[in-house]
C-alpha cells in the first residue's frame, strides 16, 4: 500500500465524490435519456456495500467501480443500464448482497447483467481445468443473451490492466497473459479497436518492460520528423479536399508498441527497418448515407492523383464490412523519403463504429439495443461452439481462439450467397458452415469448374459448389482438414458416436507408441494415466486418443517418440508432470515461494531451473517460471506461444523470475545475410572467434547468385554478448543482416 498517499477520511470522501461527479458529467453530456436517479442510486448502493474495503494499491475499493463506470460511458458510450451494472459489478461477488437484492432495488435487466458479470468475475481462468472452460462458457453465454455483459467486462479488464502496477510480478504475468490470450482478441472481434490496442500495449509493457521502453523511446525520438513527413504527404490532398467542400479532419497515428514489436519479431528486423510505422486517417462529415461510399472513393482519387499507390494494398471494407462491423477504405501510398504510408478513409459514423464496434450502436440510440445482422451472425457462431463444447479446457479455449484471432475470407455458394469464414478454411469447413449434413457427406468441392479435395484451402472470392455422396461418412483424419471451430466441434461430436471403432483405433495408437518406446503397457502405467487424467476406464482414454482430444495422433506420435522422458507429460497434457531420473534421491524439495521473485543461477554446477523443449531462453531474455509437480522451476521465454497458453491455464503455478548470473554454456544460432564475395567467411569467423573470443559450435553457409545466407551457432553467456556479436558482424563490409534466431 506504499504507493497510495495518506488522506484523511474527509479528503478521501471528497476525492470519491469528485470521481463519481466526472462519471455523471460524462453521462449528462451524452445523447442518452437522462436517468440520473437510478445511476445515483446504484453508486450510493455500491459505495455502502464496499465501505471500508481497499484495493491492493491501498485506495478505497469503490474507486474501481467508479473507474469502470467512467470507461463504460466515456470510452464505450453506453447508457444508464450499463453504468449501473458497472457500479454494481463486484457487489454480489465481494459482499453479502445477493442477485435478489440487486433485482429488488434495480430491476431484472440490471440484475441479470450483474449476475453475468459475477459468474465470470474471478477471471476466465480458475486453477482447475474444468473451471477454465466452464467460466469461459459462462462469459460467452452471457454475451449471447446480452452483449452489455461482455462490454462492461471489457471495461473492468481495461481498468485492471491500467492499475496492474500494484500487483505482485507473478500476478502481473498471469493477468497480462490472460489479456493477450483472450480479452484482446475478443475486443478485436467485437470491433473495440481502441480497447484492443490499449490491452495489447499494457500487456506488452508488463511482459517485456525493457523492449516496451526501447520502442516507445524510439517512437518519441522520431515524432517531430514523422510529423513533417506526414504533413508533406497530406498537403496536396488537403488542398483538394478544401476545394471539393469537404468538412474533414486528418489524423496521423503511430502503430502501437505491441504491433511494432510483433512486426520486428516476425520479420526479424530492427525498429529502423519497420517502414509502415505511421498511418494517416481521413475522417469526413457525411449527412447522406447514400453518398458515403462514393465520397470515400472520391477522397481515394485525391491520393492517387499525387502519389504512387501500392497495387496490392487496397482494402475495400465499405462494400463488404468485416464481421465486427468495421467499414473503411484502405490504401497504401508512397510518401516522402520512399516511405509507404497507410491511409484509412472513413466517414464520421464509420470512425465511431471502427473505434467502438458494436458498442457504437449506443452512440446513435437512446440506450435501447438495436439488433444487428452482423452481430447476430457472430453470436450464432458462439452458440454453435457452446452446443458441443470441448471436454478439455485448454482445447476449448484454443477452439474459441480459432474464431477470435482469425482474419477472414469471403466465399460464395453457387447461388451467390456470401459465406464468411476464417482465413485458412477448407472445402470441408465451408460444407459444415452451410449445414452439418452437407459436411458429413462431403466428398469434394468444385471451384471454377475444377474439382478440389476436402482439404483444399479457399481464397476470398471463390465460388464453391460442395459435392456430396450418400455413402460418404466422416473419417478421423478429417480433423486435419478442419480449421473452423464449428467444423471441429461437429466432427468430434459425430466421431465420438462410433465408440467401438474409435476405442480400437486409440488402443492401437497407444500400443504402437509403447512398443516404439520399448515400454511394456502395464496396468500400473495405465492406472497412472487414468488417475492423472481423472478417467475411470481405459476405453475412455483410448477414445480420447483417437479423437485427438489429448493431443495424440498418428502424425504426432513420431514427434513424441523422440523423447521418452516426455511420454507421460505429453499423454497427460500436463506440462508440469514429474521428470524424475535414476539420479533423483526421492527427497521432497522445499516448496517454491511463488510470491517472491525467484533468482536464476545459470553459473551453478546444477542450475536451479530446467528448460522445456519449446524455447531456449538465455540470460537477458524476458523469462518466467512455472513450478512443476516436483517443485522445480521450468523456464519459458515470456513471448513463447506455449507460455501464453500456460499463463492463462496454469496461473497458480507461475513464479516471477530474474537472472542472477551468467554462464558460457548457452547455444544460440545467429542468422546472417549479405552480398557474397571472396573472403567473407574468413572475416565472419575471425570477428567472432578471435576478435570477440566466442566459441563457434557450428556454421552453415550457402551462396545463391550474388547473395549468401549463413547460420552461425555459437556458445555464449547472455543476450548482451549476442547483441555485441550481431553489432560487430554488421560492421563487416557487405553483411546486411545479423539476428539471433534461436
3D structure, described in words:
The protein has 742 residues and is α+β, with helices and mostly antiparallel strands. 48% of the residues lie in helices and 15% in strands. The chain is built from 30 helices and 19 strands. The protein has a five-stranded mixed β-sheet. α1 packs antiparallel against α2 (36-49), α3 packs antiparallel against α4 (80-88) and α10 packs across α19 (393-405). The longest helix has 21 residues, at 169-189. The relative contact order is 0.06. The model is unreliable at 122-133, 364-375, 552-573 and 581-585 (pLDDT under 50).
Could you state the CATH homologous superfamily of the largest domain?
Hypothetical protein af1432
Which CATH-level-2 architecture of the largest domain? Orthogonal Bundle
Based on secondary structure, the structural category is: alpha+beta
Q: What count of domains describes the coordinates?
A: 5
Helix content: 40-55%
Shape: globular
- Specify Rg, calculated over alpha carbons: 29 Å
Strand order of the largest sheet: 1-2-5-4-3
What is the name of the CATH class of the largest domain?
Answer: Mainly Alpha
Amino acid at each position: 500500500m506504499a504507493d497510495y498517499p495518506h488522506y484523511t477520511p474527509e479528503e478521501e470522501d471528497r476525492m470519491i465524490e469528485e470521481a463519481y461527479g466526472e462519471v455523471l458529467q460524462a453521462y449528462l453530456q451524452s445523447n442518452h435519456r437522462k436517468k440520473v436517479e437510478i445511476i445515483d442510486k446504484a453508486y450510493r448502493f455500491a459505495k455502502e456495500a464496499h465501505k471500508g474495503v481497499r484495493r491492493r494499491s491501498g485506495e478505497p475499493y469503490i474507486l474501481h467501480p467508479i473507474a469502470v463506470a467512467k470507461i463504460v460511458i466515456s470510452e464505450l458510450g453506453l447508457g444508464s443500464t450499463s453504468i449501473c451494472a458497472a457500479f454494481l459489478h463486484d457487489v454480489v461477488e465481494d459482499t453479502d448482497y445477493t442477485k435478489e437484492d440487486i433485482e429488488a432495488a434495480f430491476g431484472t435487466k440490471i440484475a441479470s447483467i450483474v449476475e453475468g458479470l459475477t459468474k465470470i468475475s474471478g477471471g476466465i481462468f480458475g486453477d482447475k481445468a474444468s473451471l477454465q472452460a466452464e467460466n469461459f462458457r459462462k462469459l460467452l453465454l452471457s454475451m449471447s443473451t446480452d452483449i452489455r455483459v461482455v462490454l462492461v467486462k471489457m471495461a473492468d479488464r481495461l481498468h485492471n490492466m491500467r492499475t496492474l502496477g500494484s500487483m505482485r510480478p507473478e500476478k502481473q504475468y498471469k493477468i497480462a497473459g490472460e489479456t493477450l490470450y483472450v480479452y484482446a482478441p475478443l475486443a478485436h472481434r467485437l470491433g473495440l479497436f481502441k480497447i484492443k490496442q490499449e490491452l495489447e500495449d499494457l500487456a506488452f509493457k508488463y511482459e517485456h518492460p525493457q523492449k516496451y521502453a526501447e520502442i516507445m523511446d524510439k517512437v518519441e525520438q522520431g515524432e517531430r520528423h514523422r510529423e513533417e513527413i506526414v504533413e508533406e504527404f497530406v498537403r496536396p490532398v488537403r488542398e483538394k479536399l478544401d476545394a471539393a467542400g469537404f468538412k474533414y479532419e486528418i489524423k496521423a497515428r503511430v502503430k502501437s508498441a505491441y504491433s511494432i514489436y510483433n512486426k520486428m519479431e516476425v520479420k526479424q528486423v530492427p525498429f529502423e527497418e519497420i517502414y509502415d510505422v505511421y498511418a494517416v486517417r481521413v475522417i469526413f462529415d457525411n449527412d447522406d448515407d447514400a453518398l458515403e461510399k462514393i465520397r470515400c472513393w472520391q477522397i481515394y482519387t485525391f491520393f492517387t492523383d499525387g502519389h504512387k499507390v501500392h497495387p496490392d494494398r487496397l482494402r475495400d471494407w465499405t462494400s463488404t464490412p468485416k464481421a465486427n462491423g468495421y467499414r473503411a477504405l484502405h490504401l497504401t501510398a508512397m510518401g516522402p523519403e520512399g516511405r509507404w504510408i497507410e491511409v484509412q478513409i472513413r466517414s464520421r459514423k464509420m470512425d465511431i463504429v471502427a473505434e467502438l464496434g458494436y458498442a457504437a450502436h449506443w452512440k446513435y440510440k437512446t440506450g435501447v439495443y438495436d439488433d444487428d445482422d452482423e452481430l447476430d451472425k457472430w453470436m450464432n457462431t458462439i452458440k454453435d461452439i457452446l452446443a458441443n463444447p470441448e471436454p478439455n479446457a485448454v482445447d476449448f479455449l484454443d477452439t474459441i481462439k480459432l474464431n477470435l484471432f482469425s482474419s477472414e475470407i469471403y466465399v460464395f455458394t453457387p447461388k451467390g450467397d456470401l459465406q464468411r469464414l476464417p482465413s485458412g478454411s477448407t472445402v470441408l469447413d465451408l460444407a459444415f458452415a452451410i449445414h452439418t449434413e452437407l459436411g458429413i457427406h462431403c466428398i469434394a468441392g468444385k471451384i471454377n469448374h475444377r474439382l478440389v479435395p476436402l482439404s483444399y484451402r479457399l481464397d476470398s472470392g471463390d465460388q464453391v459448389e460442395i459435392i456430396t455422396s450418400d455413402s460418404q461418412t466422416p473419417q478421423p483424419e478429417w480433423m486435419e482438414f478442419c480449421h473452423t471451430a464449428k467444423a471441429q466441434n461437429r466432427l468430434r461430436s459425430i466421431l465420438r458416436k462410433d465408440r467401438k471403432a474409435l476405442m480400437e483405433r486409440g488402443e492401437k495408437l497407444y500400443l504402437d507408441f509403447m512398443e516404439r518406446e520399448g515400454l511394456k503397457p502395464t496396468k500400473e502405467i495405465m492406472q497412472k494415466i487414468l488417475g492423472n487424467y481423472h478417467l475411470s476406464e481405459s476405453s475412455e482414454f483410448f477414445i480420447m486418443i483417437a479423437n485427438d482430444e489429448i493431443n495424440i495422433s498418428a502424425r504426432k506420435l513420431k514427434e513424441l517418440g523422440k523423447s521418452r522422458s516426455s511420454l507421460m507429460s505429453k499423454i497427460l497434457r500436463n506440462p508440469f508432470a514429474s521428470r524424475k531420473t535414476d539420479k533423483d534421491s526421492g527427497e521432497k524439495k522445499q516448496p517454491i515461494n511463488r510470491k517472491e521473485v525467484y533468482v536464476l543461477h545459470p553459473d551453478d554446477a546444477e542450475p536451479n531451473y530446467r528448460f522445456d523443449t519449446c524455447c531456449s531462453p538465455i540470460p537477458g531474455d524476458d523469462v518466467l517460471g512455472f513450478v512443476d509437480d516436483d517443485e522445480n522451476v521450468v523456464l519459458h521465454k515470456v513471448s513463447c506461444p506455449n507460455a501464453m497458453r500456460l499463463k492463462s491455464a496454469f496461473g497458480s503455478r507461475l513464479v516471477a523470475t530474474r537472472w542472477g548470473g551468467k554462464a558460457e554454456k548457452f547455444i544460440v544460432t545467429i542468422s546472417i545475410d549479405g552480398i557474397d564475395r571472396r573472403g567473407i567467411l574468413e572475416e565472419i569467423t575471425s570477428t567472432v572467434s578471435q576478435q570477440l573470443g566466442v566459441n563457434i559450435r557450428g556454421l552453415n553457409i550457402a551462396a545463391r547468385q550474388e547473395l549468401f545466407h549463413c547460420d552461425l551457432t555459437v556458445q555464449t553467456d547472455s543476450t548482451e554478448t549476442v547483441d555485441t556479436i550481431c553489432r560487430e558482424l554488421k560492421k563487416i563490409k557487405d553483411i546486411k543482416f545479423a539476428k539471433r534466431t534461436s
